[in-house]
Design brief:
heterodimer; A: 360 residues; mainly alpha; two-stranded antiparallel sheet; 15 helices; globular; B: 306 residues; ABC transporter involved in vitamin B12 uptake, BtuC; 13 helices; 0% strand
Chain lengths: 360, 306
């Protein structure tokens, strides 16, 4: 007989942290089944996916490179999701941030100097913020659903970037390929170690984790965000402005996503291309959830989800597996997480309560 | 007229996938369930339909397979939301991420394969279509089926007892539960219907609109379908209007490119997305209208013992 769900008197803190671990375990089990269906040895595949990529210093540095945008956006989205503001268009904000940062790099193409990177960062942050500001404005002023508007604007941002690298920002000596010039050295993020691609953007992500943690646990704004999400009516009664929470969380989300975009073009990519992200903005939604909508959680979740990208690449090279396996695995992880989360508020009841007691 | 008629006909083809998906989501939302996974269900319908037609050669089997695919996706959503009390918004997002990934995985071997498109007017039950069919005889059966479904959904929601129960559950699940209706069962059926229709909409893309498989070929149409339901303020007739409006915008974009109007292709491609935002703004600013028509329990979890 199937166990029944009985509501817990109070949510279980223990399950909040156990749930992601359970979900990861179940996803690995599902992965084994998936690999069996695809006629690949599960152990070889899992090794290629999760062990091989991080068994060298180079692999670990690559993990940090891929985790950087995921951690950044994951932290920022956690704040919004906590407040019940569903910005799911971080991908678009990342693209616009990368585009603006990249445009600054190309503008200063002939120059050298330490002013270029800070200017690129500012451009990236403001670009992403501006893109998210449209969403906030339409939500606050016209009540337009932010899920749909932010997502629609992501498609628009992708087309805009595409237009720019086909037109004004195209490399004049690039044989008509839709790519910008390769950035000058002054527009590239400094590397942490000359042998690896790891750049200072990763340190910046750690700083953002710290700032996010302080914001959510030590400031009035953080408190307002938590209350507005958990009990909107209580928040309004206490005089917290819903409009302000929407604006703040979207601007933070957009700004940080824009920064992540700038870091991508100025770090691992080094020029503007028609596509500058393999869906980091969407994967960051999973990062936020697996990280329990907490900045420190987003750090670990970002590393885990970065591993799925890295593992997907390794499995493609070594076992000729399609890269799409990464997307399937990410989707499965979120499914299992949401399912396991039921145990936070409910517990499994294997035995029916005595019938007589219920008078039935 | 020589330009206008083909243009009108292509508008219908562009509108049909949106119409299927939005009709399905309308029923789902009317029962109080907000399934944001339409994009994922559509893209799964597109690939499964394409695989099925490739191996069976039968468009009919492909259509059934795509509806099953959408239905299975919706069943995963229903299991999480209705059985495990998962929050509807992230579950819908997970469905979309999962669907895009899985369809890409399945479609790996389907890239570059061509299909001649589903036959126009050669499937047996064409004869049962009313006189309307004679006027627009050049279409494939699915176009007619989508219009039949508009009527069926309208009739079900407004004229039947089942429709009344569905709407009651969407407006107040606690009251409906107290009256003895099975909230979970009705919501499950409504969600499955939504999935099957989204799968069918996806299959229309890969079997009729552009008969081949391209990764993420739905290109946001699932999200546009969700916006259409809001645009329609949850009314069936307006879903039809909205779908054809968006079909028109899509075709406008294609024809403008063909006529060599000096606007870059990328800007024209932005049009449907920008139009969606515009339409959402125009409809949503009238809060009273939304409150009047939106199912009051939309997106809220139901637990019988609470």
């Amino acid at each position: 007989m199937l166990p029944k769900l009985a509501k817990r008197p109070t949510p279980s803190r223990f399950m909040v942290y156990l749930s992601p671990v359970l979900a990861l375990f179940l996803s690995l089990l599902a992965g084994i089944v998936l690999f069996l269906i695809m006629d690949v040895s599960p152990w070889t595949a899992l090794h290629a996916f999760f062990i091989e990529p991080i068994s060298s210093a180079y692999g670990l540095s690559e993990l940090a490179v891929k985790a950087t945008p995921l951690i950044l956006i994951g932290v920022a989205l956690s704040l919004g999701f906590k407040a019940g503001v569903w910005n799911i268009g971080a991908e678009g904000q990342l693209i616009v941030g990368g585009l603006c940062g990249g445009a600054v790099a190309l503008y200063f193409y002939e120059q050298e100097g330490f002013h270029i990177i800070p200017l690129m960062m500012l451009a990236g942050v403001f670009g992403g913020m501006a893109w998210a500001a449209i969403v906030a404005f339409l939500r606050v002023k016209f009540n337009a659903n932010e899920i749909l508007t932010s997502l629609m604007l992501s498609y628009v941002a992708g087309l805009w970037l595409n237009l720019m690298v086909h037109g004004p920002l195209k490399d004049p000596e690039g044989f008509n390929f839709p790519e910008s010039r390769i950035f000058s050295d002054s527009a590239m993020l400094p590397l942490l170690h000359e042998d690896y691609r790891l750049h200072i953007g990763f340190l910046l992500a750690l700083v953002i984790v710290g700032l996010g943690w302080i914001l959510i646990s030590r400031t009035l704004l953080g408190y307002q965000i938590k209350v507005s999400g958990a009990a909107p009516a209580a928040g309004e009664h206490a005089g917290f402005s819903t409009a302000r929470i929407i604006w703040v969380t979207l601007l933070i989300g957009g700004g940080v996503a824009g920064l992540a975009g700038m870091i991508e073009v100025s770090g691992p990519i080094g020029q503007l291309l028609p596509s500058i992200s393999p869906g980091y903005g969407f994967t960051a939604i999973i990062v936020a959830y697996v990280g329990r909508l907490h900045p420190v959680g987003a750090l670990f979740a970002g590393l885990l989800l970065a591993l799925t990208y890295l593992g997907g690449e390794t499995a493609q090279i070594q076992l000729n597996l399609p890269v799409a396996v990464t997307g399937v695995f990410q989707g499965l992880l979120l499914f299992f997480l949401l399912a396991c989360d039921v145990l936070i508020h409910y517990r499994l009841q294997f035995k029916q309560p005595a019938l007589a007691a219920r008078g039935a | 007229m020589e330009i206008l008629v083909p243009a009108l006909l292509t508008i219908i083809t562009a509108a049909t996938p949106l119409l299927f998906a939005a009709l399905g989501e309308l029923i789902t939302e009317k029962s109080g369930v907000l399934n944001l996974g339409v994009e994922g269900m559509m893209v799964m319908g597109a690939i499964i339909g394409f695989v099925a037609v490739h191996y069976s050669g039968s468009a009919f089997i492909a259509v059934i397979a795509s509806m099953l695919a959408g239905g299975v996706m919706a069943a995963i959503f229903a299991l999480l939301v209705l059985r495990f009390h998962a929050s509807q918004v992230p579950t819908g997002l997970a469905l979309t991420i999962f669907g895009i990934g899985l369809s890409a995985l399945i479609g790996q071997s389907m890239i570059g394969i061509a299909y001649e498109g589903i036959p126009h007017v050669s499937i047996p039950f064409l004869s049962s279509i009313p006189v309307l069919g004679a006027l627009l005889f050049s279409h494939d059966l699915l176009v007619y089926f989508s219009l039949v479904m508009v009527f069926a959904v309208y009739y079900f929601l407004n004229k039947t007892r089942g429709g009344l129960i569905l709407r009651a559950i969407g407006d107040s699940h606690d009251a409906a539960h107290a009256m003895g209706y099975s909230v979970i069962r009705v919501r499950l059926l409504a969600t499955l219907f939504g999935g099957a229709m989204a799968g069918l909409g996806g299959a229309y893309l890969s079997l009729a609109y552009s008969p081949l498989w391209v990764e993420q070929m739905t290109a946001g149409r699932g999200w546009i379908a969700l916006a259409l339901v809001v645009f329609a303020t949850w009314r069936t007739g307006r879903v039809l209007l909205g779908a054809y409006l968006f079909g028109g915008i899509t075709i406008l974009q294609l024809h403008a490119q063909a006529l060599g109007i000096g606007v870059p292709a990328q800007v024209m491609s932005m049009l449907p997305y920008l139009a969606t935002v515009l339409v959402l703004v125009l409809i949503s600013r009238d809060l009273g209208k939304i409150k009047l028509n939106a199912p009051a329990s939309l997106g809220k979890a139901f637990h019988a013992s609470s």
